[in-house]
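Sample pair:
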Amino acid sequence: MPLIGTIDPAWKDMSKYVVHFAKESKFKSAYDNAIAILYERRIVAMKAFGAGRHLPHAKRSVCFSEVPLHHFKRLADARGQHGIGFRKEFLVERGGGPILYAYKDTPQAQAINALVHSAAGDPAAPVWNLAPFVDLPGTYGVSTYLFEWEREWRHVGDLPFAETEPAFLIIPETLHDAARGFFASAKLDHVGPSYECPFIDPYWSEDRIEMALSG
């Protein structure tokens, strides 16, 4: 039985892939963080997300997006130009999936909030496996939390992977040749992982991305 439904190639509003973009952090560039992910073969869950994310037993998650290939620019503009892509099945097999939205003050939001607060003292409560997959968009004081445009998926906890498992790497085109040379040398010298999957630039056209993925 398939893990996810069929996605017709003609459906341009959907994607077979999920992508994680490395962001700039306080002391490291997006490039540095991407290199760390690739070298360690692990995406580290840095923060808790979802319902009850500020409570002590909230679980940290890794965030992905299922935006279609021709909309990677949207994410690159906000996050940076370096990332990694996997087939959706890869994430689902490991317990990941798309998040749900329970808008602030709706009955759904009130229900999930009641569940997480009732479990605030119980780290083994089943709701902590659900909470990271439920966001509560809305306005909170002077700030807003509205990220529907990201079309987000999540994986609870760190995500380890083998170098053969990414579907593609997201790298600026100007660095493609250098990256291929680096990975080839790493393989030859046995000094690190070698990624032989396609490289794509997030600002390429849909046709060019499709060509790279089919090549």
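Helices lie at 30-40, 72-79, 88-93, 107-118, 127-130, 176-189, 206-214.
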